[in-house]
Amino acid sequence: MNRLIIKCFFYSCLTLSSFACQQATSKKKIVEATVDVDFPKPNYPSIARETMEMLWDKCTNIDLIFSNLPYSVSTNTNQESRPLLMHISTDAAFVDAKCPLTASVVYLANGQIVLEGNLYYSDNQQCSYMVFLENGQPKYANYLSQQGKDYFKQLFSTVKIEPQ
What is the pTM of this model? Predict the structure, then answer.
């Protein structure tokens, strides 16, 4: 008889706890939300790997002529040029019309222009990419690598001038 009472008590507890759990889960509302974020898609393709390899092998000079700053940056050898080439990411960039032109960039191999580009950089406006030109027209666009962003941030903070 005691076993019967214990079994009845045990099943009653299970039933009550099951009922309580069902009520608790029925009161919970699961809310699912999807956020549609439109990241801008690149409006130009990434510069070709072959072009970057050619620059890596043959580029002897890189000249950055800043639009609104009283100085420029130049390299004079292939070894000096390579670190600047590493500032270019492999990711194609979205070219934003709100980003101001920071510098014109000329890539030379033994005195001959092999590529031209425009640098867009502004730490305040989140602009950090290169647009490469072909016959004076935009053809490719790549973001700056983190190393490139750090370089330009350091460069502009050293001279205490923010590019416009």
Answer: 0.71
